Structures are given as structure tokens and as C-alpha cells.
Amino acid sequence: MSVRIHPTAEVSDQATIGAGASIWHQAQVRERASIGEGCIVGKGVYIGADVSLGRNCKVQNYSCVYEGNRLEDGVFVGPEVVFTNDRYPRAINPDGSLKAASDWDLEGSVVKFGAAIGSRSVILPGLTIGRWALVAAGSVVTKDVPDHAIVAGNPARPRGWVCVCARPLNADLSCPACARTYRTAESGLVLAE
Description:
0% of the residues lie in helices and 30% in strands. The chain contains no helices and 24 strands.
């Protein structure tokens, strides 16, 4: 499978792009970024240096995944999502000098397998968003999100649980759409056996 890169996209020669990936209009992929097989990088997306996207991720239009962040396989990122990477941002040092890379504590987040981040959400640095978790549109995520959790708001708070098929679970942790059932686990929820 060939890679598709739109002529207006800016992709570093030092980036790694997996087979079957598509990088669309005006996207920028920085040096040493890794875009997995089958990924779709939408119009105007920014993928920072050293960022890693697993296989079959979708990063929708105008989202920014800054340096230090990592998405595992199958992650969905809605339009205009921002992944931050600096917990204590300043342009200058206390003496007024411009901050350099050596003055910065890089702190990325990890988004686990199958998770989805809703449009216009902001992900603060140093977090883990669990497997199959769902971040509702417009959320500001300030804490780790367990596997299969739904979080929403500013700051994002738990609102329930979600199935692998993306439907909210009933109170008994069963899915009304596909009939899968779940049980609690240390990481959040797991499929019941």
C-alpha cells in the first residue's frame, strides 16, 4: 500500500510514514515523527517532532499533537483537538531571557488503544487516556482517564462508561447496542468473560 501525501503538506524527510497512510492538505509532520500504517492525518494537522502515532489512527482537521505525545493503535482525534506538553508554560525565564529548549520540561501524554478524543478538546501534559475511553467534545482533560470511561466538561469529569462500539453502557455495565458486558478492573473496565 502506498503512502498518500498531498502536495501542500509539509512532511520532514526525517519522519517515518507507514504504508497506506494519508496526509492531507496543509498538514505538517515534523522530524522524527512516526505515523503508523493506515493512519489518516487531516487537513491542517500539526504533528510535532518525535510524536508517535500507532497504526490506523485518525487525526482530524486542524488538530495539534505537540512533541512528547504518543497515540497507540486505533486512536481517533476529532477536529481542532490540542495535545499540550508543558505544564508550566512561559515564553521567558525569570531574568527576562527567551526560554530555550534546555529551559523546558517536556511532558507528553499517552492515548491508549482505541480511545477517542472529541472535537475541540484540550489534553493537558503528562496524562494517560485509557483503552477505549471517550473524551466528549469540548473537554479539558486534567487527570488520567480510565479504560472505557466517558469524561466530559471543563475540567473533564467521569460521566459513565463506554463500549468498544462507542455506545454508553447501561448501569449493569452492558451495552444496549451490541450486548457486550463488562466488569470493573484496576485500569477501569474490561470485557466480562
